[in-house]
Amino acid sequence: MQTDVIIIGGGLHGCSTALHLAQRGFKPIVLEKNIVGRHASGVNAGGVRQLMRDAAEIPLSIAAMDIWENLDKLLGPQLAETCEFIRRVGQVGVAASASELAWCEQRTADMKALGYDFEEMLDAKGVRQLVPSLSDICIGGIVSRRDGHANPFRTTQAFRARAEQLGARFYEQTCVTDVAATGSKWQLDTTRGQMRADIVVNCGGAWAWRIAEMIGEQLPRTHLALTLMVTSRIQHFLDPVVIGIDRKLSLKQTQVGTVVIGGGVLGDPDLDAGTTLTVADRMVESAQTVWDFFPVLRQATIVRTWAGLEAVTPDILPIIGASSVAKNFWHVFGFSGHGFQLGPIVGSLVSDMITDGKSALSIAAFSPDRFSNGAVARVPIHAAQHEQPGAAG
Length: 393
Fold this sequence. Notes:
By secondary structure, the chain is an alpha+beta fold. It is 30% helix and 26% strand. The protein folds into two domains: 2-82 and 152-221 and 314-383, 3-Layer(bba) Sandwich (FAD/NAD(P)-binding domain); 91-148 and 223-311, 2-Layer Sandwich (D-Amino Acid Oxidase, Chain A, domain 2), CATH 3.30.9. The longest helix has 16 residues, at 98-113. The model is unreliable at 377-392 (pLDDT under 50).
């Protein structure tokens, strides 16, 4: 089997890249070892978030939000509706201590110094106007009013469906066992047989480093299983998504009344089996945080827990860019629990780079070669706390 582009990995970024490449006239094939959206892309909290992102990601996040707010143009009205995107309800970071509130003040000042005004400081009164159900433990916070949330699994399936409408092909239950250069093309050995392509895009998520090793490239191997809980349906009490500053909290109420709770509690991952286990003892901290912040949930019943396998980089920033050791080979992974919102724009930028060698926004900060020779960028403490846990988006 032969085509112009093969994409390894059927998460949201693989589906988005396939969609955008198909728009540009390519005939991409997506190879997914399980089913599309099985891991991080389909089981995260669905946050569509600009709030508290690393400065390097903000231009991408703003551009992604423009696409989110016009999904019907990208996906068509019917598929866009299935994403269940709830726009402009805001995401609120809540502070429960003077030090957390001071961090919020410094954060908003730093963002203004960079020319961004979408994050606003909130005092105790302001935060309760947005989230009346908060307990007195909350003394203020920070808000990005444009933010919202969507259904992650249905969004990933919508991007897949649109890509297929444009000519992309998806092969599930198809594992890549080897990748080798043969002249000017790439040959992939898979459980479906050999395939050849001019270009390969590695969107393999927690397994992407293994694909990189097949072409002789060493990239970070870190992965996590991030846990979420969901309650039974309760009366509507919350519109924004609420996240913690230093405490592990990520919380939203869905349209049907259930409450999805995250915040960075780790499950036990098994990369070889492609499975995760939630650990009840570790989830006590998350439950205690919810108890402290939301009295309305003190009688709620947890009906289900799960965890999604996610690739995490040492600097908590994604890897997006051309391989540093091979031609016509691209990496798109390592979103460290906050890649969902970025999916629509990352696929577009990577497609631009493959097609034209340039894109409207720089992806230089995410280059794979930043990890060469053991080099690792700095990890701000609050970025590490806020970006990894909870798969907030």
